[in-house]
Design goal:
Helix content is 43%, strand content 18%. By secondary structure, the chain is an alpha/beta fold. It has a 7-stranded parallel sheet with strand order 3-2-1-4-5-6-7, with helices on both faces. Strands 10-9-8-11-12-13 form a 6-stranded parallel sheet, with helices on both faces.
Length: 364
């Protein structure tokens, strides 16, 4: 098959990791693979040694920009016309619009869209009603829609985005991970880890506020990421005098990010809306208990009281209480870490995700 992947993301996040997994697998399996993406260095570096036809789209930007959005369509048009794919597989909202519009214009019969969390999901900003209407219209140009969680599938059904038979749930998958499990005894120091964009969606300020509430001096918070809220994050750290407890590591390469997961004790994600975060699965597979917000598909992977704690979005007090429970009970960290590892390695493997995606392609 000739497979063309289209993704908007200009940073190496969960959707990019997912697309990279697909590209590696299908390229190595002997299929012809193409990729249309923003000029994101980490993603480009990862695929450059694979036999992948690369089409860079500098007009793929996160914010709505009419001029750049129109220009991005031209790049996708040229890529599809040049590559002549059997299947187009688009990821992320803007790429999904562009790929499906161009696919319709150029009469590509098989177009797949993966929703890594719907743009009209609960908690997301903007005109959710209008966005759901656009998605309903775009579904006419889509052969199959992959939802990364049952939550997203149910949301699509409730908004009448597409017939049930057009919607397919395929969970994100992760590779085998190794990481130290916190010793089940009293300790003097615990590493808390956050990985994500410094953005309103990921809401690092809520986590910082939670850490500022902790009475214990035995913890250190590491923030991996960058983004538009960086100045606000730095100001909060100064104002709350958290310099001794918080370190900003910036955006890291994938290998370094995985190393930080392995060396941490507790993983926290205070996101306001989400699909099914790969980074949580990676933390679970590495044996880390997870504190996360009760949004999107997260409750499908984090079982409250079993492999971590779930809190409401924006609830810094809830996050602080969960952190205190874990810091005061290393045995609980061990128990929840082992439980999370079993869940991730049994139900959310990369092999399962790839096999189900291949089955979907073959069904088309």
């Amino acid at each position: 098959m000739k497979l063309l992947y289209v993704i908007t993301a200009a940073e190496f996040g969960g959707a990019s990791v997912h697309v990279l997994q697909l590209i590696k697998y299908f390229a190595q399996a002997g299929h012809e693979v193409g990729l249309v993406c923003a000029p994101e260095k980490n993603l480009i570096d990862e695929v450059k040694n694979l036999k992948v036809k690369l089409y860079l789209n500098p007009y793929f930007v996160r914010k709505v920009n009419l001029r750049q959005d129109i220009l991005s369509l031209k790049v996708v048009f040229r890529a599809v016309k040049n590559f002549k794919p059997d299947i187009i597989h688009a990821h992320s909202t803007k790429a999904g619009y562009a790929a499906r519009i161009i696919g319709k214009i150029l009469r590509i019969k098989k177009v797949v869209f993966t929703a890594h969390g719907w743009c009209f999901t609960e908690g997301a900003p903007g005109w959710r009603g209008m966005l759901s209407v656009i998605e309903r219209f775009m579904a006419f140009f889509t052969s199959k829609i992959i939802c990364v969680s049952n939550y997203d599938r149910d949301l699509a059904i409730s908004y009448k985005i597409a017939p049930k038979e057009k919607l397919k749930v395929i969970y994100n998958g992760i590779e085998k991970f190794s990481g130290k499990i916190c010793e089940g005894k009293k300790r003097d120091h615990f590493k808390i880890l956050f990985i994500g964009r410094f953005s309103p969606q990921k809401d690092p300020i809520t986590l910082l506020d939670a850490v500022s509430r902790l009475n214990s001096e035995r913890c250190e918070l590491l923030l991996v990421g960058d983004g538009e809220l960086k100045t606000s994050v730095e100001k909060f750290i100064r104002d709350k005098r958290l310099n001794e407890k918080v370190r900003i590591l910036g955006s890291l390469k994938r290998e370094a990010t995985i190393k930080e997961i392995a060396n941490s004790d507790i993983f926290v994600l205070t996101t306001n809306w989400e699909g099914l975060p790969i980074v949580i699965l990676e933390a679970m597979a590495s044996g880390k208990p997870v504190i996360a917000t009760k949004v999107g598909g997260i409750p499908e992977i984090v079982k409250n009281g079993e492999n971590g704690f779930l809190v409401e979005a924006g609830d810094s007090k809830g996050v602080a209480l969960a952190l205190e429970k874990l810091i005061n009970s290393p045995e609980l960290i061990v128990q929840m870490g082992e439980s999370g590892r079993k869940i991730a390695t049994n139900a959310f493997t990369i092999d399962l995700m790839l096999r189900r995606t291949a089955e979907l392609y073959n069904s088309l």
